[in-house]
Design goal:
The protein is α+β, with helices and mostly antiparallel strands. The chain is built from 3 helices and 5 strands. The longest helix has 9 residues.
């Protein structure tokens, strides 16, 4: 929950969820454009949290993906 709060306070838009249901359960959460230095952008989240990052050019997406010290699952969504 702290990581989601940190991202929102840093400028991310909370599109869904973001609440603890119980001590061991968290709502499915969608964050739009969290800061590059937020923990949700740099660390693996063990919970139902997804971050959506906008890009104008594929080079921006590749640069951001390659600047993370870990290899996470990724997806590209287009219109």
């Amino acid at each position: 929950h702290q990581w989601v709060t940190e991202a929102v306070e840093g400028g991310a838009e909370l599109l869904a969820g973001g609440n603890k249901v119980s001590d061991s359960c968290y709502e499915c959460t969608v964050l739009y454009d969290p800061p590059k230095d937020a923990k949700v952008s740099l660390m693996e989240i063990f919970g139902p949290v997804i971050c959506v990052y906008p890009y104008d050019h594929i080079d921006e997406a590749l640069e951001r993906a390659n600047n993370v010290p870990f290899q996470f699952q990724a997806a590209v969504w287009t219109k």
